[in-house]
Amino acid sequence: MQMKTLRLPSACPTRWGSTLKLCKRFLDNQLPISKALFDYPSKKCLMLEQNEVSALEDLVESTILMEDITKHLSGEKYTTASSLVPLLQKIKKRMQPKDTDRRLVKEMKSEILSALNEYYFECSELMELLNLTTVCDPRFRLNYAGNKEEVKTVLLQHMLDLYEHSANESISDSSENKNPKKCGLQKLLESDNDDDKDQETIDDIPLPVRKVEIELKNYLYMPKTMLNQDPLTWWKSHGESFPSLRVIAKKLLDVQGTSVPSERVFSAGGNVITKNHDQKSLKIINCEGLFRIRNSVKEEFDGFYVRCIAYLDLWENSFGKTEQFAWVNLTKTNAVDWENAETSAEIINSSLLDVPDMKINNDELFDEVVLAKEYLQSNWEQWKQEDTTRDVIISSEEKWLRLFGHFKENHIAAPNLIKIFEYAFCLPGTSASVERVFSLMNNALR
């Protein structure tokens, strides 16, 4: 018949979809199989009757969707649990009996729906977890949630719990400020600066309930995401805008929709560690060697932490007088005052004696500090409101730029204050910039 020779796959109880593959292969090759059996009179009895072939066709038609869904949920290189609820709803919709269905098809659909109800829809705790996982997937959000308000309430409660129990963790900083990705000194020292804030600043922060509601609302109103887009990539790009939801999504989207990935690990382990291979390995490895390895690893880790602490102590004490310039970060209303400015001016004048252009005039500086302090105090409340409405905290650099811009518009000269600002923001935090120069020179002179 000039057809490609194909083998019939085996139906194995422990291999998902193997029976369905066998039925599909038989239906696709029904003609050559029938011809082969008719060529041997003693084998004619093996050929299926027409009603049996119709039953196989009904089986394939009713379960082909299950095969596609099973293949998708068996993946291990992408998120699967978040798509369970949408796929379950699709199966439930497709398995609804029709008047035109034959009796066998109706029975199969009824069995499938019964199994889905038993394992999923009737298990409230599991469905609550799956609904939360689906909402955290930007491709679905609330589109497939059964009771949308109930799911939102549960999710808001989880977000509130994060605010209440994560005061000393990174989520606390990001949830209080709702700022874009932090870097530099803002990332390293902002949590420390929070301890120095005035009590009035803490009291002005909106209630956590209001914050999580705004965060969830903004997330739900984000533009629609394509179904072929990776939700983990989406969260990597937008996670900083939704600090508490990001933490919840990170926990839930890692969940696998099936046990297939873990079963693959055991299968691979069984192929690698065979009976003979395991016996040879036991002859080589002994308990004494394992204890020696464990102790050496423990000592290495203990020594690593001791060295880290010693290095941090040395690094912390190496800044000297540069801590006197911390006020230029403008984290407080009264950050700019004469005492701080005078101390900074003395350091600059004493350390840059050979740079006359950097010499600071204290008399002029006093007048500049008074005007700057007046401007900051009159605009501080407005800046705090901008932090809340724009969901982006105003950086210290932007505050200084606004201040100097105000001086320029009103023809106010502030050369001495500008020198302090330039000096403070040019101080390197590490020797990395100098070391890069030597690295570049070394590469160039080879």
Automatic annotation (TrEMBL):
Q: Which part of the chain is the HAT C-terminal dimerisation domain?
A: 215-276
InterPro entries attached to this UniProt entry: HATC_C_dom, RNaseH-like_sf, Vacuolar_transposase_reg
- Give me the Gene Ontology terms describing cellular component: nucleus
Question: Which superkingdom heads the taxonomic lineage of this protein's source?
Answer: Eukaryota
Q: Which GO terms describe its molecular function?
A: protein dimerization activity
Q: Which GO terms describe its biological process?
A: regulation of transcription by RNA polymerase II
Name this polypeptide is given: HAT C-terminal dimerisation domain-containing protein
